[in-house]
Design a protein that fits this description.
Blueprint (H helix, E strand, L loop, with lengths): L15 H23 L10 H6 L1 E3 L5 H21 L2 H6 L28 H15 L3 H12 L1 H22 L2 H4 L2 H31 L7 E4 L5 E4 L1 H20 L1 H11 L2 H11 L2 H8 L13 H15 L5 H9 L25 H17 L2 H20 L14 H23 L6 H29 L28 H13 L1 H11 L5 H21 L9 H28 L1 H6 L24
């Protein structure tokens, strides 16, 4: 008799229908994979997901109109940094011996420092901080006017006149007759700062998006002369546009090189007059290129509609329990109540005057704005090279170098590094398959800024120890004849923080411009850009609270504290936004269709897209 078969010995024979089911499932799985490979990326010229994931991405040709707008920004930044970078000595230091204009007598230039009002470090810091605060809060003025009334081009033209008025007042404040009455000169300086900040801020929020919107390309395939098929990427092109735009900004920043020597050798009224003359090229360029720009016209109540969408969603998720409310806000269904598709028949509320895509655009805008909320810490680090490190340099061995000249190492280093990153580092990373996305770049920028502050803290400690006065105020150390007594440390040693902060700007600041542009709805790019720049104003407001510790004898601990905080925020930033990092391509695709967001209208754009303006 045969032994009974154990369960483990049995060979199951599948039923015919089981074979059929497996075959069908395999076909479905295979079909899904094929469908995924053949699905077209929204907003592209026939590029599939498979091609997007497997082909190398390169940038497109950049339009010449973008470079003309970069010239405008170059001139505007020349006037800004060619004046603000010498505010520290102008306000802080007294007139040099025998001077009426702030200039140093020829025989004293090897050790002498230009000055005028003699108001001290704290008043200098407070006024410079007010300038930074106001110039970065006024972008909302220009942004709202551009998005709702005038459009970006007209807004830039109008506020160009405002900047001119401010510069005329500034030159008057530095005339020898004004400097003879320091309180009068200081009052005129504050008025000039107020007027120039309104103009510069309103231009700033519009130049940044206008330069990028000159490029209108989409994802597409192209075969290179080598035979390689690549993806022409708008996002990489925008990244390159903003890198070179930032280079133009920093080329303008190097105006402070001439400003430092002009102030030392000729006096402050001459140093302020030269940037005013340079700014004269702005209206010329804007007028000459007026018929060639892509111009996005204002769209009326877009901001109000955005507030209504956000308000409607917040009201639907409201809860008395704060924990529940926060959980509801973070839920995936947060935006559903504002979507027309959530309602059937005639149940949609009358206040919903937007379409489905507009809700997606608002969600993307809110996500971008959350990213910018981390930036005040970054700009606090940057603010140290904007003035405090100039005071550090004043206590070192100058060898004829103006102490406020050293801060120009920051823009010079950026100018040198940007082509290296754009042509070398970033393409190499993409070729190696390393996704150095915007979120990663910003986090790394925070980290580098932290290292810069650590360098400054260590340097300040050595400066305290080697200054002849040993009172922790090296910049004020003088002999009996009021001639400066300096530390034996060469002033060029302070270049480290300037270069490191420059690198941090390439990673964080440039990327924030790119992020603000790519994540904002077409009609709200100026407002989102203004919100990103508002973070600099918030950093200045925080600096106001730190006036008591922004004194030379506390610089070491100030720099060290900023360094530690920046490193911590680098980790917190990436941890908070790692989900956005993974959704980068999907977020960029929102709003790239031909719909405007209201009732399916096509966006009316002036200029070369529709017609010559």
């Amino acid at each position: 008799m045969a032994a009974p078969a154990y369960e483990s010995d049995k060979v199951a024979t599948p039923a015919p229908e089981k074979f059929a089911a497996d075959k069908d499932n395999a076909s479905i799985a295979k079909g899904s994979a094929v469908d995924s490979e053949l699905s077209i990326i929204p907003g592209s010229e026939g590029v599939t997901e498979h091609e997007m994931n497997t082909l190398r991405h390169v940038r497109d040709k950049m339009p010449w109109q973008a470079f003309s707008i970069a010239v405008v920004e170059f001139a505007e930044r020349w006037t800004y940094y060619g004046t603000t970078n010498i505010f520290n000595n102008y306000i802080r230091a007294p007139l040099p011996p025998g001077s009426t204009s702030g200039a140093v007598l020829r025989e004293n230039r090897s050790v002498g420092i230009a000055g005028a009002l003699g108001k001290g470090q704290q008043i200098s810091f407070a006024i410079r901080t007010f300038n930074s605060f106001f110039v970065y809060i006024t972008p909302f003025v220009g942004a709202i006017l551009a998005d709702t009334k005038w459009g970006r081009y007209k807004t830039i033209c109008i506020f160009t006149v405002v900047i001119f008025m401010g510069h005329i007042i500034l030159v008057g404040s530095a005339a020898p007759s004004s400097i003879a009455k320091p309180d009068v000169a200081l009052g005129l300086l504050v008025l000039a700062i107020f007027v120039m900040a309104i103009g510069a801020g309103s231009i700033k929020s519009n130049v940044s998006p206008m330069i990028a919107e000159q490029y209108t390309g989409k994802f597409r395939k192209e075969t290179l002369p080598s035979g390689e098929t690549v993806i022409i990427s708008p996002s990489i092109t925008i990244q390159s546009i903003y890198l070179y735009f930032y280079m133009a900004i920093n080329l303008g920043s190097t105006a402070a090189i001439s400003a430092s020597f002009l102030a030392r050798d000729q006096g402050y009224w001459v140093a302020y007059l030269v940037p005013t003359c340079v700014f004269a090229m702005v209206p010329i360029v804007l007028y000459a290129c007026r018929n060639n720009y892509v111009k996005t016209p204002p769209r009326g109540s877009i901001i109000l509609e955005t507030f209504r969408v956000v308000g409607m969603c917040l009201a639907a998720q409201w809860a008395l329990n704060p924990v529940t409310f926060v959980r509801n806000i973070k839920g995936e269904a947060f935006w559903d109540v504002a979507k027309p598709s959530s309602y059937s028949g005639g149940t949609m509320p009358a206040k919903i005057t937007w379409d489905e895509e507009f809700v997606g655009e608002v969600a993307r805008t809110m996500a971008a704005c959350k990213v910018f909320l981390f930036f005040p810490i970054f700009w606090l680090c940057y603010s140290q090279i904007d003035g405090n490190l100039g005071t550090v340099a004043a206590g070192m061995r100058l060898n004829g170098t103006p102490n406020d000249l050293i801060q120009n190492l920051n823009p010079i280093s950026i100018i040198i590094m940007i082509p290296i990153f754009e042509r070398g580092v970033y393409p190499l990373l993409r070729k190696r398959g390393i996704n150095f996305s915007p979120i990663k770049r910003i986090a790394f920028g925070f980290l580098v800024a932290g290292f810069a502050m650590a360098y400054a803290a260590v340097l300040q400690k050595y400066l305290y120890d080697t200054s002849p006065c040993h009172d922790k105020r090296p910049s004020e150390c003088v002999d009996a004849k009021k001639n400066p007594l300096s530390s034996p440390i060469n002033v060029w040693v302070v270049s480290g923080p300037y270069i490191l902060v420059g690198m941090a700007e390439i990673f964080a600041s440039v990327t924030s411009l790119e992020y603000a542009y790519t994540k904002a709805p077409v009609r709200m790019k100026s407002v989102v850009m203004a919100f990103s720049q508002l973070q600099t104003a918030l950093a200045s407001a925080l600096n106001f609270a730190l006036v008591d510790v922004n004194v030379e004898d506390k610089f070491q601990w100030l720099f060290a504290s900023f360094g530690i905080i920046a490193v911590i925020f680098a980790g917190l930033f990436y941890w908070t936004f790692r989900d956005l990092d993974r959704a980068e391509i999907r977020l960029n695709a929102i709003g790239t269709s031909d719909r405007a967001g209201f009732a399916g209208e096509a966006p009316a754009r002036e200029g070369v897209v529709a017609e010559k303006a």
